[in-house]
């Protein structure tokens, strides 16, 4: 993959993250809590895919992307463990809200996930710029 292709992919993934974050906010404002959690998680997931693209790594599985994020970016000290905890928490909550029967999420929990997703994406963008990862 050429440097230009990597830059284009990173830009695309960050746009997906921003769009998902905006969708999560709109859904929460409309009282649609479960779909808001889904979109907040996906915002974080797309940001992870952007990071993985900077290392020319990819995976089609969510668990694989999360594992690579931990290995390549958290264990190496690029990101604090809090971001890993937020990502794992959002993934777990998204899984439960999408697939468990009659799973209820509080508005407070959804607000927290959205806040963490905003900060997660902000941190990812800052590191991409700071470390000139693309």
Characterization of this structure:
With 134 residues, the protein is mostly helical. The protein has one domain: Nucleotidyltransferases  domain 2 (Four Helix Bundle (Hemerythrin (Met), subunit A)), CATH 1.20.120. It is built from 5 helices and no strands. The radius of gyration is 15 Å and the shape is globular. The mean pLDDT is 94.
Question: Outline of this structure?
Answer:
The chain has helices at residues 3-29, 33-54, 62-74, 81-99, 107-130.
Structural class: mainly alpha
Span between termini = 12 Å
* Mean pLDDT rating: 94
User: What's the CATH architecture?
Assistant: Up-down Bundle
Give the low-pLDDT segments. none
Give the number of helices: 5
Strand content: under 5%
The CATH class label is Mainly Alpha
What is the C-alpha radius of gyration, as a whole number of Å?
15 Å
Count of extended strands:
0
Number of self-contained structural domains: 1
CATH topology-level fold name: Four Helix Bundle (Hemerythrin (Met), subunit A)
So, the CATH homologous superfamily?
Nucleotidyltransferases  domain 2
SSE topology string: HHHHH
Shape: globular
List the helices and strands and how they pair.
Layout: H1 3-29, H2 33-54, H3 62-74, H4 81-99, H5 107-130
Helix pairs in contact: 1-2, 1-5, 2-3, 2-4, 2-5, 3-4, 4-5
Based on the model shown, name its key terms.
single chain, 134 residues, mainly alpha, Four Helix Bundle (Hemerythrin (Met), subunit A)
